Amino acid sequence: MGNFSNHPYWLFHIRQMGRWSAQLCITAISPLIATVLSSAPVAANTSCPAALTQMQNHRVVAGETLTSVATAYRLSPITLNRFNPGLSEQLSPGTELLIPPFNGMAVAVATGESWQSLAERYGTRADLLFEINGCVTDVPNRIFVPGGLTPVTSRASTDQLAGYPLASSADIALSYGWQPHPTRDELVFNSGIAFAITTPTDVLSVEGGTVAFAGSREGYGQMVVINHERGLQTRYINLSDISVTVGQTVTASTKMGRVGGETPTFLYFEVRSNSASGWVAEDPGRYLPSLDLR
C-alpha cells in the first residue's frame, strides 16, 4: 500500500471554540454524527504512528555521500542535515545517521501552542500536523513538520472525479473540515465526509483505478482504498461487506461492497492526494461535482 498507513485518521480535536459557539451549532447535528465522532479516540490511539517514532539509523559505508544516502531514502540532503547537524557532502565510514520517514524537520513546541497556530507558523495544514504526529489532542513538546506538500490550490479542474460513491443518493451527515463536537467543548477536524445510510446500499468507485487495500483495519472497520491516476486516492470506510480484492483494476461505478444493515449507519468517504509526506486528505467537494447535484 506504499504510504497508505501514514495518515490513517479521520478527526482531531482543538479546544479553541467557546462553549456558546459550540452549543449554537449542536442543535443541527444528528445522533448519527455523534456516532461517527465517538469512534475517533479509538483510531487515534491505535492507528496513527508519529513520524518521530519511525526514525531509522543508518551506518555510513565507504563511498557513500550525503546526497547518495539522501537519495537512497528518498529524502533531500537538507532534511538529513536538519536531523544530523554538521554533515558535509563527504561522509566518514562508520558515521551513524538518523533517517526520518519523510522530508521535514523536528521543532520544539512552546507551551500553549495548538495545531492550528503551528500550521500557520510553518505554512502547512493543521490536520496534517495532527496526523503525522500521532493523532494526539495535546500537542507534544517536540513535533515533526513535514515538507514537500502539494497545495490544494494547485489542483486543476481536470482532477475532478466524475462518479458518486453510492448506488443511490444519501444525505451528507458530516462535512469535510472543522466541526463542533456534539457533546464536548472542542472542534474536530473531519478529513472526509460521512453519508447517512438508512438502508443497505451498494458502494461504488468514483473513478477507475487499482485496489490498494481491501479489508478490515483497526479504527476504520472494513475499508476499500482505490489509487487513481494523477496521484489521487479515494477511501470508502465502514463497509458491511467487500467485493473487491487488492490489485484488482476497477472502473467508474464498479461495485466494491455494501454499507448498511438493520440500523442506520454511515459511509465515510475520503479523497487524498499523494505528496512527499504521504497521502494528504483533501476536500471531497473539490473533486466530486456529483455532490452538488444530489
Provide a descriptive summary of the structure in words.
- It is built from seven helices and 18 strands.
- The protein has 294 residues and is an alpha+beta fold.
- Among the domains are: 56-99, LysM domain (Membrane-bound Lytic Murein Transglycosylase D, Chain A), CATH 3.10.350.10; 153-293, Glucose Permease (Domain IIA) (Distorted Sandwich).
- The strands form five sheets. Strands 6, 9, 11, 12, 13, 15, 17 and 18 form an eight-stranded antiparallel β-sheet that branches.
- Strand 11 (209-217) and strand 12 form a beta hairpin.
- The radius of gyration is 21 Å and the shape is globular.
How far apart are the first and last residues' alpha carbons, in Å?
32 Å
**H/E element order:** EHHHEHHEEHHEEEEEEEEEEEEEE
CATH topology of the domain at 153-293: Glucose Permease (Domain IIA)
Question: Globular, elongated, flat, extended or rod-shaped: what is the shape?
Answer: globular
Biggest β-sheet description = 8 strands, antiparallel
The CATH architecture assignment of the domain at 153-293 turns out to be: Distorted Sandwich
- The CATH superfamily of the domain at 153-293 is identified as Glucose Permease (Domain IIA)
Helix % is 10-25%
Strand content: 25-35%
What is the arithmetic mean of pLDDT? Answer: 78
Q: What is the CATH domain class of the domain at 153-293?
A: Mainly Beta
Low-confidence stretches: 1-31, 39-46, 148-157
| Helix/strand structural class | alpha+beta
